[in-house]
Amino acid sequence: MKKIIALCSLLLLCSWAGVAQKFALIDMEYILKNIPVYEMTNEQLSQVSRQWQNEVEAIQQEAQNMYKTYQSDLVFLSAEMKTKREEAIVKREQDAQELKRKYFGPEGELFKKRESLMKPIQDEVYMAVKEISEANNYQLVVDRASAMSIIFASPKIDISNEVLRKLGYSK
Question: How far apart, in whole angstroms, are the C-alpha atoms of residue 116 and residue 90?
Answer without folding.
Answer: 35
